[in-house]
Each structure stands twice: as C-alpha cells, then as structure tokens.
Amino acid sequence: LRGSKSFTAALPGEAERNGHGLAYKSVSVGHLEAAPLSPSRLSLGRASSTATSTAAPEQGRPRDYLVLAIFSCFCPVWPINVVALVFSIMSRNSGQQGDVDGARRLGRMARLLSIVSIILGTIIIVLYVSLSVRGNISF
Prior knowledge:
Keywords: Membrane, Transmembrane, Transmembrane helix
Main location: membrane
Strand order of the largest sheet: 1-2
Order of helices and strands: EEHHHH
Protein name: TUSC5 protein
Number of helices: 4
Number of strands: 2
Mean pLDDT: 74
Largest sheet: 2 strands, antiparallel
Pfam family, one: CD225
Family: Belongs to the CD225/Dispanin family.
Low-confidence stretches: 38-56
Shape: rod-shaped
Radius of gyration: 28 Å
C-alpha cells in the first residue's frame, strides 16, 4: 500500500466545516497555504484585478519569425541562418501543439540568430565589395 501525503489540521479562522461541526480542512503536503512573499503577489480575484489583464503578454499565437529567418538565409553566413530557420520552424510547431512558452522561447532564439546572421552577412558583403573594388581580391 502507498502512504498518503495528505493530512487534516485545524486551521484558525477557517470557515469550511467538515460535517461534524469542527473547523478542519484536509490538504495535501504540496498544497499548503502560505503567506505571499511580497505585496505584489497579493491578488483580490480575477475580476477585480485590472493590472494583470492589461500587463499580461499577448494571448494570441506567439511569433515564430519565419519570414525573418527565410530572409536571413540569403546572407552568406550559412550555419547561423540555417539554425535560425530550424528554430523558427520548431517555434511554429510548438505553437501549433499548444506549448506557448516553448514557442516563445524558440521564436526569440530564431529572431536572435536571424539578426546576427543578417548583421554578419552585411559585414561580409561590405568587406568583399570594398576589397574587390580596391583590387585586392580576385575570385
């Protein structure tokens, strides 16, 4: 037999009754009620809180930056832009499967790698053009 991790304890000020007229509440070990760590974690309820509804992140589909990743594939930094494209596709797949946090994380990584690829590609193209105009490079 497996032992239970729940117990019954008398909680002061508890309005819930267990049917015998005693103020006891049965709780699990992992679900003990504790005081909030800071005043910012206090919540008066879902309907009365306007700060959480306005400051909440976008509830729609997370961005996967696929267009940016495809655009970065035209830059001559092939390992970075291919990885950015893979992260973008993984972000889209995670979003379609319902993993919003994973999709956001992968989308941010795709955006970062795409931007790095575009910047490095632009630097490489500018260096190549400036050195070929001088005549130092002949390919």
